[in-house]
Amino acid sequence: MFNKSLWGVLLGFLMILNTPTATAEQVPDFDVGTSGSGSRGQTSGLKIGVVEYRSLMEKVAQREQTEKKLEREFSARQKKLKADLEEINKIKERFAKEEGALSEEEKIKLTKDGQKRILDFKNAETEFNQDLNQTRNEEQQKLFKIVLEAVQAVARDESYDLILDRDGAPFAKDSINVTAKVASKLESGEGSPKAPKK
């Protein structure tokens, strides 16, 4: 006579054997792109392109103006930081050369002066980098908007349903790369939004 635990294991095993396995007909049919109608989504009619945004960002005519603007706004502060760093290095050199001849009072004064200058320099450098990065990011966003408008103009003019970033696409044929078309729009200044075609 079987004990209860062994009998339970055998019953469970028999139930598994008698359970019908899933066949191809039993697999649920999930439709992508349907709206509750049950019909399969159609993708064969889509017109898709890819574009190289990084390449286009280098070609925006306004990029040169942006670089000049950043130089105008930040070159004076950059020169000041460079001059401050040179002064700090001079104090270090003087301290190293004259340390033996300096009195304790002069050493303390020179050390305090050097430490204060280093602290001021680090604070100014941090503030400079934060301001520069923020302004650069803002200007980059403006450039990206110009590129995006040119991409949208190509999509409208040539009836594209979808244009993707080439860097984000694992594979794309060269024939669907519309970077040259967008670059042409940028060069001709046609990237600004237009009224949609009727």
Outline the secondary-structure elements.
Blueprint (H helix, E strand, L loop, with lengths): L3 H15 L29 E4 L1 H7 L2 H37 L5 H54 L4 E4 L13 H10 L10
Parallel strand pairs: 1-2
Helix pairs in contact: 2-5, 3-4, 4-5
Give a description of the structure.
The protein has 198 residues and is mainly alpha-helical. It has one domain (48-188): Protein Binding, DinI Protein, Chain A. It contains five helices and two strands, in the order αβαααβα. Helix 2 runs parallel beside helix 5, helix 3 runs antiparallel to helix 4 and helix 4 (104-157) crosses helix 5 (179-188). The model is unreliable at 1-42 and 192-198 (pLDDT under 50).
Describe this protein with a few key phrases.
single chain, 198 residues, mainly alpha, Protein Binding, DinI Protein, Chain A, 2 strands, 62% helix, 4% strand, rod-shaped, disordered N terminus, disordered C terminus
